[in-house]
């Protein structure tokens, strides 16, 4: 009888143990281990900076590394390592034009470039005329619509965050601004700094080929005002010169619509983000302005 009772107790205990196992979640940690839970305080954006090129009709219909057929009329791109299907918002830092593309191929493998765009994606950025151009590309959400896109409001900040700006290309993470507190007047600045993920071992100058600059913009200016009275224009010129000691400030007098106008131009910047950063600083001082692209050469 005692043996029978012991047998019943053993069976009942085993049954309870089995129920406990069956009711445990599938991802529960095994004994002796601790499940790591990632709870970052701020999220970050992965950013790529470097030269972008393009490919078109010669590769039309060929199978890409992902297995898809290349179509120059679809918004796709090639990148060396990003997972297929990754979506990028690519912005030409010369003209501020943006486009969203999807990674479907591997490359490019020459001139230290970071991305190859399909022909339809390269056209709105002005890359088909230049051969290649410096871009900033952000990894965006998988449901972001493909095609032409709005220029990121923080383009200047993304470009300036590059931890290795002299390298031919760089990949880095930029912390996003923290969510503002309720009723806060301004967003809270991120507490972390940009982190370098990868960078080229050669410089931008070494990687750029001579023919890439043909028919591309030479630079950007800030028009800080247009005045009918030249005295007011000179006053604005003097004010900006007192604030920006190392930036060229010029006065241009032109006949516009039959009227003499005096315009104040600030700087001669090689990249749009540089001009935008100065324009934002002028706004802080109460001076409005527009970034204008220098005529093509």
TrEMBL record:
Q: What is its EC number?
A: 4.2.2.-
- Write out the GO MF terms: lytic endotransglycosylase activity; peptidoglycan binding
Q: Which UniProt keywords apply?
A: Cell wall biogenesis/degradation, Lyase, Signal
Cleaved signal peptide residues: 1-28
**Ranges of residues in domain SPOR:** 214-297
- Biological process per Gene Ontology, one example term: cell wall organization
HAMAP family for this protein: RlpA
**Function, as annotated:** Lytic transglycosylase with a strong preference for naked glycan strands that lack stem peptides.
Q: Which PANTHER family match?
A: ENDOLYTIC PEPTIDOGLYCAN TRANSGLYCOSYLASE RLPA, ENDOLYTIC PEPTIDOGLYCAN TRANSGLYCOSYLASE RLPA-RELATED
Q: Which NCBIfam families match?
A: rlpA
Q: Which family does it belong to?
A: Belongs to the RlpA family.
Protein's name according to its UniProt entry = Probable endolytic peptidoglycan transglycosylase RlpA
State the organism of origin.
Hymenobacter lapidarius
Q: Which gene encodes it?
A: rlpA
């Amino acid at each position: 009888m005692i043996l029978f009772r012991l047998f019943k107790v053993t069976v009942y205990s085993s049954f309870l143990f089995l129920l406990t196992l069956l009711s445990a979640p599938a991802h529960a940690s095994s004994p002796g281990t601790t499940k790591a839970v990632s709870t970052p305080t701020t999220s970050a954006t992965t950013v790529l900076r470097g030269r972008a090129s393009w490919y078109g009709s010669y590769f039309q219909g060929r199978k890409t590394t992902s297995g898809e057929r290349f179509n120059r009329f679809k918004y796709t791109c090639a990148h060396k390592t990003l997972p297929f299907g990754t979506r990028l918002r690519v912005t030409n830092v010369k003209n501020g034009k943006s486009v969203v593309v999807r990674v479907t191929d591997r490359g490019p493998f020459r001139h230290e470039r970071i991305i190859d765009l399909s022909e339809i994606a390269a056209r709105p950025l002005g890359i088909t005329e230049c051969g290649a151009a410096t871009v900033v590309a952000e990894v965006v959400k998988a449901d972001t619509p493909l095609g032409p896109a709005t220029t990121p409001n923080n383009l200047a900040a993304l470009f300036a965050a590059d931890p290795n700006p002299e390298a031919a290309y760089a990949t880095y993470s930029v912390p996003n601004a923290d969510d503002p507190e309720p009723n806060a007047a301004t967003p809270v600045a991120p507490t972390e700094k940009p982190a370098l993920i990868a960078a080229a071992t050669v410089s931008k100058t070494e990687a750029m080929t001579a023919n890439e600059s043909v028919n591309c913009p030479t630079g950007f200016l800030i028009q800080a005002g247009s005045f009918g009275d030249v005295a007011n224009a000179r006053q604005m010129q003097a004010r900006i010169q007192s604030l920006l000691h190392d930036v060229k400030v010029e006065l241009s007098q032109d006949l516009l619509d039959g009227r003499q106008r005096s315009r104040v131009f600030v700087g001669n910047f090689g990249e749009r983000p540089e001009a935008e950063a100065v324009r934002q600083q002028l706004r802080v001082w109460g001076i409005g302005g527009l970034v204008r692209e220098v005529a093509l050469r």
